[in-house]
Design brief:
7-stranded mixed β-sheet, two-stranded antiparallel sheet, 254 residues, 9 strands, 31% helix, alpha/beta, Helicase, Ruva Protein, domain 3
């Protein structure tokens, strides 16, 4: 029985075999690796992945799809909203083995998923995600560009990222109304030690009125915190590199 894509789950199923092969090549799955796929759907990417891996854990919210996936002998199925999944509970061969996370993420909740995974970054070897191209442009954006923002800062603090593959709408069934791409995210081995919640607050305040100089936003916030350190607020938020935001959060905590 054909599965009808559900709008409430943001379902767009990857169907282009050439694109699927290119994604698998970019991921480069190896036998015995601990891998988790978010939103396997109709298993277009799942099947070639598990053929390389031998076993794969999948997270699927759609009950009908989860039933189908459970019939596959090489899959462990977690039927859940990914935002409620504790990735530290996912079995690994040993504590030394890190998780590889992949998926065609629902575009309507892709940013919350990325922030949810930040909590488990210490357990993760790498991540490969299909996302709306516009989101990936923001993720990898450099300072002093229109795409650079809160998402850029929070993710670049923790990951090295690159756009590895462009995916046109016609690669999906049904086709989305946007262009897509695949991003590779590799956690930094020695990230700057900083309170993630504090950094998030600093960046959120800084970008709250991104067209204005930060003296109107972050400057006032720092005054309220009685911050006496040096930080140039005569700039727009998009002009400040990741390292300066991290250094500011460290100074506030210290």
């Amino acid at each position: 029985m054909k599965h009808i894509p559900r709008k409430r789950f943001g379902q767009h199923f990857l169907a282009d075999r050439g694109v699927i092969a290119a994604i698998v090549q970019a991921i480069d799955p190896r036998a015995g690796q601990a891998m988790v796929e978010i939103g396997p759907g109709l298993a277009a990417l799942t099947q070639p992945l598990v053929e390389h891996l031998g076993h794969l854990t999948v997270i699927e919210l759609d009950r009908d799809l989860a039933v189908r996936l459970r019939a596959h002998p090489q899959l462990s199925v977690i039927e859940s909203d990914v935002l409620k999944v504790d990735f530290s509970d996912i079995p690994r061969p040993s504590d030394a083995v890190k998780l590889r996370v992949v998926g065609n993420l629902p575009y309507n909740i892709s940013t919350p998923i990325l922030f949810h995974l930040l909590q488990f970054v210490e357990l993760i070897q790498d991540q490969h995600f299909m996302l709306q191209k516009e989101v990936i442009d923001r993720m990898v954006a450099r300072p002093a560009t229109s795409d650079y923002g809160r998402l850029s800062v929070m993710l670049q603090w923790r990951y090295a990222m690159e756009n590895v593959l462009a995916v046109p709408p016609e690669s999906f069934d049904p086709p989305p109304r946007v262009d897509s791409a695949v991003v590779r995210m590799v956690p930094h081995t020695r990230p700057a030690a900083v309170d993630a919640d504090l950094l998030s607050t600093v960046v959120r305040v800084a970008f709250s009125q991104r067209r204005k100089l930060m003296r109107h936003t972050l400057g006032r916030w720092l005054e309220e915190k009685a911050f006496s350190g040096a930080f140039n607020v005569q700039r727009r938020a998009e002009e400040v590199p990741v390292e300066e935001y991290v250094a500011l959060a460290q100074a506030l905590a210290g």
